[in-house]
Amino acid sequence: MNVMQKIRAYIKGTGSYVPPKILKNDFFEKVGSSDEWIFKNLGIRERRIAEGEVTSDLAYKAGLRALENTDVSPKDIDLIIVATSTPDRQAPSTACFVQEKMDAPRAVAFDISAVCSGGLYGIAIGCQFIETGMYNNVLVIGADTFSTITDWERKDSVFFGDGAGAILLSATTEDKGFFDFKLHADGTGKYHFNIPAGGSEMPASEETLKQKLHYFQMNGKEVFETATKVLPETINEILEANHLTSENVDWVIPHQPSIRILQETARKTNIPFEKVMTNMDKYANTSGGTIPIVLDETYKSGKIQPGNLLLFAAVGSGWTWGTALYKV
């Protein structure tokens, strides 16, 4: 490869996997919710729940599907990044489990934790390894089994589902690929979505189990207000930095927080909502898996065409948030 040419990371393959078990909204009537309210406010009809499968199983299956119809085999992968908030174990990384299951012996493997922004953060990291010339094929997987950290007696249990998506990034010198990222974090929001126990701050004990502190806790009002503030800001930031407007965007590939958050974000950025890709009606919020899953489905739908401009956007616990621009 000519070292004088600009190396970019482009999407060579996408894949996704969701467990077969479907949990519909009527299940949540026992916690005081309803199908009508959930669909109207969140856009969710149903979600998938893993049974007999762990996070690395979902990630592994999505990863293999991302390699289909490409000339890349597992043995050609240089790096596996798994974005997850629900790892198989605290150690080793879920990515190491995936590497073994995929039989990808050359691949370096590690996890990242940025919750719902994890997929986007993982893509940004993978692109850096490719742009520096260190690696040629990077597999970024977002995978979560939030059913394992959900208290089904709480009203906020309606939000999440299980699933995994994978993106194979490869090197190119053509005029395509990811060309900008804007990533942010604000640790002052750390308590508005968190899992209190299980880490060094509050190790597992009989008392933490009794108090259900190993399940996620969410302040829904703060999530909505933060998301509808920072997502429009960072979308406008990346467009302005690249001398683009909302009219230049062909498709928005967002994480799937709720239909109302995405509608409000589209309104504030003057992006027609029909350009915003969603699948939360089928899968709810699959956290780190949301962006790669919706990207895979959008590619397979035939909507994405050469020359299109894709805008990626996500916000998650931490707070973490960001955007990316991609030329097909």
UniProtKB/TrEMBL annotation:
GO terms for cellular component: cytoplasm. Transmembrane segments: none annotated. It catalyses: malonyl-[ACP] + acetyl-CoA + H(+) = 3-oxobutanoyl-[ACP] + CO2 + CoA. It is found in: Cytoplasm. Its EC number is 2.3.1.180. Pathway: Lipid metabolism; fatty acid biosynthesis. GO terms for biological process: fatty acid biosynthetic process; secondary metabolite biosynthetic process. Catalyzes the condensation reaction of fatty acid synthesis by the addition to an acyl acceptor of two carbons from malonyl-ACP. Catalyzes the first condensation reaction which initiates fatty acid synthesis and may therefore play a role in governing the total rate of fatty acid production. Possesses both acetoacetyl-ACP synthase and acetyl transacylase activities. Its substrate specificity determines the biosynthesis of branched-chain and/or straight-chain of fatty acids. HAMAP family: FabH. Residues 110-187 form the Beta-ketoacyl-[acyl-carrier-protein] synthase III N-terminal domain. The active site is at 116, 255, 285. Gene3D superfamilies: 3.40.47.10. Pfam families: ACP_syn_III, ACP_syn_III_C. This is Beta-ketoacyl-[acyl-carrier-protein] synthase III. Belongs to the thiolase-like superfamily. FabH family. Keywords: Acyltransferase, Cytoplasm, Fatty acid biosynthesis, Fatty acid metabolism, Lipid biosynthesis, Lipid metabolism, Multifunctional enzyme, Transferase. Homodimer. Its main location: cytoplasm. Residues 239-327 form the Beta-ketoacyl-[acyl-carrier-protein] synthase III C-terminal domain. GO terms for molecular function: 3-oxoacyl-[acyl-carrier-protein] synthase activity; beta-ketoacyl-acyl-carrier-protein synthase III activity. The last Arg residue of the ACP-binding site is essential for the weak association between ACP/AcpP and FabH.
